[in-house]
Design goal:
It comes from Urochloa decumbens. It catalyses: a fatty acyl-[ACP] + malonyl-[ACP] + H(+) = a 3-oxoacyl-[ACP] + holo-[ACP] + CO2. The structure is a single chain. Helices cover about 30% and strands about 15% of the residues. By secondary structure, the protein is of the alpha/beta class. It is globular. It starts with 5 loop residues before the first helix and ends with a strand.
Amino acid sequence: MQTLRPDAVAVAAADVTPRTQPQPRRVSVSMARAPRRESDPKKRVVVTGMGVVSVFGNDAGAFYDRLLAGDSGAGHIDRFDPAGFTARFAAQIRGFSSEGHIDGESDRRLDDCQRYALVAARKALESAGLALGSTAMDNIDLERAGVVVGSGIGGVKEFAAGVESLVTKGPSKVSPFTVPLAIPNMASALVAIDAGIGFLGPNYSVSAAGATGSHCIHSAADQIRLGRADVMLAGGAEAAIAPVALGGLAALGALSRRNADPETASRPWDRDRDGFVLGEGAGVLVMESLEHAMRRGAPVLVEYLGGAASCDAYHVTNPSPDGYAASLCIKRSLEDAGVAPEEVNYINANATSSRAGDLAELKALKRVFKDTSLIKMNATKSMIGHCLGAAGGLEAIATIKAITTGWVHPTINQFNPDPAVDQFDTVRDVKQRHYVNVGISNSFGFGGHNSVVVFAPFKR
């Protein structure tokens, strides 16, 4: 196994391919006509509810309205003193309230990562007609209901507090909650434990950096397709706007340094992009078998068609510059969905505003989609920043809202578009009307983790 030296990580921070890394593979992805789509109502998976916690609030409709308006959620950090950091801004949630969703004692104890997950899960259940205490919720078979909600880092503030206590006060003063509230799986566990939910079915989390949320969504869908569950809560949560995470990402050179103008710092596909803006939040879906949803008369929003995962197997932070493994992930997601590339006309791109990452994704997309004339592609991260483990959940919700509203949100801050993006309509600055036939949401993360999910309007 290759040993990653500190100097190799430093090189990655500059978005330069280290000489010790393998050269890009010159391989093309062939696209055969996709197989037929699933017809068995027990295996067809639909989305019946959505819940968000975001820099734009905790309502999915209001969240998307702010995206359609092209608002920026980035601003100067005031949660702690960022003086001395090279990046002193983020898409920070302000005024978050869990009132009515988390009891006071738990609210004071939990890390924000878990608080965000719990509120987003409750919101998703409510929108699916499964409010706690309702007849519909009481009729759910808890043994066939599960949760897959992941986090890229977990309770980073709780863990940092434990380390501080250890260093300044000694081991006897480390909180017994340090480990339980720091581990990434605890958001998923606490959602199931939450009073009134009590889902007893499959429960785990996927931790795959920026690919986490999408990974959790297609993993949860597979539980339904395999007949192991009727209903699943799926998505991601993250609360990494904390000194240790900000400092670590800044040390990598991953973050934008536009401290004088935070609102325009996230610039996907712009020639002058200089890194991403750190964000936070949670995005959770209620996913059900079509049979289960129809039996209870659930409000079906969209159909989940498929998903896939792959790994660049290339570098600890840099994407493989040839985009091959990412294109493989897109190809496999379409095959899993029973969709041909020609059917896709909307892409919610990963597009972090990274110099190397944006180019690698474009190369991946060009391998798969030979004709992009009918495709609209946008970057949610241009407004809410990179929410790490929560990104896939929040961007899946943006994709679903594009399908259900017929509007695709703009990509902001494209002042000088990179020539590499010239084949795509990136919905520059202003929302556009667009009927989405099939939409995909891309999520790619550190470690070369790739995950893609596919949605379409629900048709009986």
